[in-house]
Amino acid sequence: MCDSRITTPFVPDPNKELEQKLRKLTTTSVVTMNSNDTNVSDFKETGSEKELDREQDNKICKEEQIKCALQENYKGILQGLGEDTTRQGLLKTPERAAKAMMFFTKGYRENIKDALNDAIFDEDHDDMVIVKDIEMFSLCEHHLVPFIGKVSIGYLPNKRVLGLSKLARIVEIYSRRLQVQERLTKQIAVAITEAIQPSGVGVVIEATHMCMVMRGVQKLNSKTVTSTMLGVFREDPKTREEFLTLTCSTR
Ligand SMILES: [Zn+2]
Q1: Which of 195, 198, 212, 244 matches a 20 to 30 Å C-alpha distance to 55?
Q2: 61 among known catalytic residues
Q3: For residue 98, with 0-12 CB atoms within 10 Å meaning exposed, 13-18 middle and 19 or more buried, which class applies?
């Protein structure tokens, strides 16, 4: 089971064997994971692996710790609801829910620098680049329920461009965290600015918040639109207008 440093109090997992192996993994300098074992529980020392492998193993170990901590807490939530966590339908629910939450928040364990590493190009292109309607799934940090929508990004290059798929990648990294839409919008714009120092950036997000649809005011069709304009997108009304016309044309 997991040596959790993520949450307290920590409720022990019955799998003592995995706990011992995970402990070993955090303290042993060189380890590899046996790929034949899908339980992620069979770690084997080799004493001859590279630093990269060690980093990878540490990452796996840390993820396993987070998952176990989440799992125990989900069990507590079910019990808090008065549910019987030993009934068949719920037996694996804490683990499934933990894995799902890990996916919804995987952006915490990724960073922009690594993601954009090999995708910044010198290019003498100075016309607006727009990628619109990038699908976005995030979790509202106030209620831990989803908000779902589309992101449109435009920038005016200044000698450098970004691989087009990387704009979606930036959206993915920041949206897969607990968020508020306003901050998400700004973080995307700032990340692009820092990566390629363009003349300007515009980001518009249009999203539906489940905390408004499923609870509270229960407004099924309401959408929240946020925008961040930096550089010439903020200073020059014509540039901003061009961006907004192009991104909003099919809405
Ligand atoms: Zn909310």
Answers
A1: 195
A2: no
A3: buried
